Structure formats: C-alpha cells, structure tokens
C-alpha cells in the first residue's frame, strides 16, 4: 500500500487532503486489481470511474485556487492537467477494451502524482498560500476566508 509522506505536502491543507484521497484511490485500485475475477474487474472499473471523476474535480479546484491567486503559470499548469486526463482516459479505454491495465496504471499514477506534487504543484504553492493569507487579513476575517474556501470545496466536491 502506498502511504502519504510529508514530502508530498504542498502546505495547503485542502490540497494535501485531496492528494491523500487520490493515493487512497490508487491503493483501492491496487487491491481491486490484485486478483483476476469478474468481481474484481468490476471493482477496478468502479475505482477507475471514481478516480477519473475525483481527479477532474481536484484539478478544477486547484485551477480555481491558482486563478484566484493570480498564478501566472496557470495555462501551462492546465495543459499538464489536460495531458494527465487524456492519459487516464487512454487507460480507461484500454480497460474497456478488455486489457488488464491495472499494474501499469498504478505505476503511472504513482510516478505522475509524485512528480506533479513535488514539481508542478510546488511552483504555485507560495502564491496560493499568500492569497489564502490575504483572505485572512485580520482574525475577525477568518470566517470570510473559511467561508470562501468551504464554498469552493463544496462547489467541486459536493
């Protein structure tokens, strides 16, 4: 099982939580793909669907934070997200065509997520953290910041 490590943290609690959820989906995929059976194939399909949906929501949320913060490399970051979504869609199509893609997908997901967190996400973390702090100008403004962040989380994750 893949464990969260402090070195994966971007220092933004809500983003770290979402990354931890992605790791959980990867672990679920690993368990579901461990044994060849119809039931496990169905579990792989279910986890793959959840992973795709959650990843798209996570990326949208991340992009919204970057846009709000005025991150100047937003467009290239979006392109990285789009390329990843295309890659996962490719795996999903191969799975639907009957291929056993689980091991390769897990390996790709792990490598991509670690690389993305430690490189791409690390690039925006300071500007987003700064923007989040600005939303918390004074202690009595904390509720405003929390409300804004909560509404953004609800918008993308229900």
From TrEMBL:
<dbReference type="InterPro" id="IPR035938">
    <property type="entry name" value="Hemerythrin-like_sf"/>
</dbReference>
<dbReference type="InterPro" id="IPR012827">
    <property type="entry name" value="Hemerythrin_metal-bd"/>
</dbReference>
<protein>
    <submittedName>
        <fullName>Bacteriohemerythrin</fullName>
    </submittedName>
</protein>
<dbReference type="InterPro" id="IPR050669">
    <property type="entry name" value="Hemerythrin"/>
</dbReference>
<dbReference type="InterPro" id="IPR012312">
    <property type="entry name" value="Hemerythrin-like"/>
</dbReference>
<dbReference type="GO" id="GO:0005344">
    <property type="term" value="F:oxygen carrier activity"/>
</dbReference>
<feature type="domain" description="Hemerythrin-like">
    <location>
        <begin position="11"/>
        <end position="124"/>
    </location>
</feature>
<keyword id="KW-0813">Transport</keyword>
<dbReference type="Pfam" id="PF01814">
    <property type="entry name" value="Hemerythrin"/>
</dbReference>
<dbReference type="InterPro" id="IPR016131">
    <property type="entry name" value="Haemerythrin_Fe_BS"/>
</dbReference>
<comment type="similarity">
    <text>Belongs to the hemerythrin family.</text>
</comment>
<keyword id="KW-0408">Iron</keyword>
<dbReference type="GO" id="GO:0046872">
    <property type="term" value="F:metal ion binding"/>
</dbReference>
<keyword id="KW-0561">Oxygen transport</keyword>
<keyword id="KW-0479">Metal-binding</keyword>
